[in-house]
Amino acid sequence: MVRVFARHARGQWFESTIAQFFMKFKVFIFFYCFIFISFLYSYDKIVSLSPYITENIFDLESGDSIIGATSFCNIEPRYKNKITIIGGMINPNYEAILLLKPDVIFVSIEDQNPNIIKNLRKISKVEIFKANRNFCDIKNNYLYLAKILNKESLAKDKIDHIETKLRLKKLNKSNFFNKKKVFFVIQENPLITAGRDTFFNDMLNYIGLENVVKESHSRYPLYSFEKLIIEKSDIFVYLTSERRKIKKKSEFLKSSFDIFLDPDICSRPTPKNFLKSVEILYDEIKRVYRK
Length: 291
Prior knowledge:
Blueprint: H1 2-40, E1 46-48, H2 51-59, E2 66-69, E3 84-85, H3 94-100, E4 104-108, H4 114-121, E5 125-129, H5 135-148, H6 152-171, E6 181-185, H7 199-205, E7 210-211, H8 225-231, E8 235-238, H9 249-252, E9 257-260, H10 263-266, H11 271-289
Parallel strand pairs: 1-2, 1-4, 2-3, 4-5, 6-7, 6-8, 8-9
Helix pairs in contact: 5-6, 6-11
């Protein structure tokens, strides 16, 4: 009886020891898998083929990782001699990118066609960022980039700060903003505007303005001047830093006024630029209607 009990006790001890061993082994494996995955997502050499992604990388304090960018990207002065220009967004220099030996290439699905992405994948790993149709998309792309760059905590703090300011703008919108019609001039000839499913339209939502072409099924529809006259827009928002106006506009639309936004800010959908564009629109419109 004693021997049977002893064998049973030894068996239990053995099973307990084995269980503890495998538990420690699991923890060990989990830890090193985490380190390995973190290593895979740690990119030291990045080529960015989108101006807004480049700006987001700088905003996340990871400019040292950029080795290549497009001619349309705004490069911070201290990095100008460190970053190679690899052509445009839709006509990148594949040879130049290949010579840089990047760890990853960042592209926006809105800027690239499938053939370019296919060619880029022959050179390096490609991370594709989704379309920016509203602030939620802009935020999600920013947070996804932050995850890749191991900057999630910094990104969350910045997003919290921006969302707080946007909420305040929404709460403090003036009554005289209501039902004011806005027409975005993306391009003058041919005349192209911003439709419902765009982050430009979402900017208006935060300050209580109405997009003239909010019912358009196209994101960036062509628009006729005749139709523009019928719609009777209250405000024209030009995506240009130059003080140009639509030809003949003053003859038919004297009651409207113009706002000029810097395309380097409003056309590059970063969280910071979205907030700044909303603030500029809010301040300019409030200034005019308070007169």
